[in-house]
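anyone else get weird line breaks when pasting these?? whatever heres mine. first is seq + tokens for prot A
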Amino acid sequence: MIAAVVFIATAAITLATVPDNLRSIVQARVELAVRRVAAEARAGNLPRVLEAPSRVHVLQVVAADGRLLSSSPGLVRGLRLADLKPSWPDAVRFTERTVSRSPDEHEAHYLVMALAAQTPQGPVTVYGASSLTDVDRALNWIYVLVFIGTPLVLVSVAGITWITVGSALRPVERIRAEMAEITGQDLSRRVPVPDTGDEITDLATTTNDTLDRLERSAETQRRFVADASHELRSPISALRTQLEVAHAYPDETDWRATGEQALAAADRLAGIIDELLMLARLDAGAAGERRVVDLARVAMDQVRRREGNRVPIIPDVCAAAPVYGSLMQLDRLLTNLLDNATRHAATRIDLEVAVAGDKVIVTVTDDGDGIPPQDRERVFERFTRLAPARAKDKGGSGLGLALSREIAMAHCGSLTLADHSPGARFVVTLPLYGEP
């Protein structure tokens, strides 16, 4: 469409300007020769034989009574000049004449000019004529190019464009067709990647990368739902069994112990649900209410709340460790780490909060059995509980460490396991808050 508009506009401009421009060139050539002869006549220096410049075929000077006073050597048979009369001296008249030399020859087309001039011998008329054959031939070629060549060019451009665009978009169509076949139940299929090395190749590669991420995300979600169902089923089944036994044998039931066991199961359910909800909010990008939080104060509050626990906590906390974040989430991070350390520690837990450069570093260390190097990343996966922990039945849902890492990452920090023996050492690194 754009090419058609450009070609049509160019053709219209060409037809509107080129013919006049070509005729103007011939007209300027004839006029220059005629005025030169008229100037000689006024000065009384008119020769009998006039010298015609190149491409000016006829020059004549005719007196008022019709006598031919001067002429160029070559005359054109049949070219009438005398009937072209200027209306006053120094006036110029132009016309075009067609001359038929013989029946066997083509007609000759001439541009004729007449100029009246006053000479010492009286008024005269200076005539000049130049052939328009070259102009007509050039215009014929232009008309052929415009009226025949332009449609052919447009058809050719349209055809080439159709073929080129179709060839270029064929890989896109294959990608579209493959994408239309991919469903949420089967994300294993991939779109074909053309070997053209252009943007379509990049599109197909990016599409496959996106499908890879979607497949991993869907698999993680399915595994998460399955694990969540399993972890929720255990305390619910235990609670249901206890209540069914108590209901079946009410006289033989220790209702106080049953109530305590039911409360423990309910507490575990509530803890799992709270962690699942917080993980869901973090996955959705919910930042929570954020403000400046002093991690040193949060750590000391944790120590005071845990006084009298099975394993003592030995604090080594700096004066102040301000970070910008959610107080609830950061408190939950420390709670999960200390709960995990309490379950595995043998005699003590070391809690350190320090400022190093522009970072706040929190370290929780226990003297338990430790974590093998090959499992140091697995423990941060959701619902992951290592075999030793399950064997000892120390509780936990396998969500605490995963949630803690998500909280650290949501605060532009990190949670890692450092080398330590005996036991395990968890290191939290967060950006230090500073006034801008």
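and prot B, same format (seq, then tokens)
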Amino acid sequence: MHNDRLSLDEIARRVDAKAADYCALSDRIWATPELAFEEHRSVAEQIAMLTAEGFRVTRNVGGMATAFVAEYGSGGPVVGILGEYDALPDLAQESGITAHRPTVAGAPGHGCGHNLLGAGSALAAVALKDALEAEGIAGTVRYYGCPAEESGSGKTFMARAGLFHDLDAAFCWHPSVVNEVQTTSSLACIQAYFRFRGRASHAAAAPHVGRSALDAVELMNVGVNYMREHMPSDARVHYAVTNTGGDAPNVVQSQAESLYLVRSPHLPDAERLFERVKKIAEGACLMTETSVTVQITDATSNVVPNKALQEAMYENMKRLGPPAFDEADFAFAEKLRAASLTDEEILASVKPHDMSLRTKVLHDGVLSMPTREEVMMGTTDVGDVSWIVPTVQCHTACFAIGTPFHTWQLVAQGNLPAAHKGMVLAAKAMAATAADCLRNPDLIARAKAELTERTGGRAYICPIPDDVTPDDLRAKAA
């Protein structure tokens, strides 16, 4: 194949040529944050730009109005770049200040940097498309507009719809406090509502004829807490009581509801742990003479790492180097750190990476690839993509070291020049590694062989039951 023209320098040049437009796109999405499945303005912004760039757009994919696929080119190989754009509730925050000051009380904000994530991934797809177009090189570039990563597992629904099955490789990134290739796996998860039903009665005059659904919720929680001693130490169980059955203490509650999130490094282990949680719910029903229905609303698979693609991306990141932060970037990071970040937050930020970073305010290097694989104690729906197609991710420094995710401090930095610089680096790393796959069929072959080996040849099985739709999650959120 005569694809040597897809060099790192050429890809970087094409990213730089359009970086300003996509940094502006990121800022517009930052300014109009939207929650899961409601990202209509963000999607419209992205589709308008990608259509103008010559991409063919398919809307409303996977049963979601805010999911889409934009495609350029034809034939193989087919490479996909994943983007996100959903925000988080109650995180509205003024930009560029070091104190908590919401722009609108109670409004959402981009506390995980998905305004950058989607715009940076779109920039990578456009730069790669421009290179293919200029050189007349065969291949297909796809940008996947993926909604509801924070709450709703948009990519899992897209995976269930078969939208990734003909990809040869997939690429993603996440804004971070460090520059690195992600080598970790993640936790698989299953989330479900436990809805208890009992019988109402007057709590004083006739308590003996009532059967309390709230008692069942509380007893289930006690049982799950006792289970914690007897489950794997790397598993997690979280819960929230989402309906207490009312505010009147003199009424025996006839209904109550809790929401449980079960996580484990491997989906089969999460499934087994979830079955134990269900048995505890059934036990609570026996003790209270109530009934329970269980509705799975959200689930993701663990990330399957791919060393072949990781090594290719790492070589590109080493050559690209870290973002070119200037004195103003360092000065604001130092100011934010002094005003609003604790020593504990700084330690937690660097502990998974390199403890020596705690003396820095911005990461101005590229972390080496670790010699052993670890498990990231979090969950992402990128995991479902990684079971279907070889997938690789990078992190780039967009925020001050010590910045906790899902906080106002992160929102305050999400449209600053330092964040833009990290985004542009990620676009270059993703586009360059995708170009490596287009240029080198052997890289794709090795990545696919590794995926087969790591999964044991097990075909992807969507962890969300077929009868659960995105509409179910939207209805609950409303």
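btw re prot B: The chain has a mean pLDDT of 95. Residues 92 and 109 are 4 Å apart (CA to CA).
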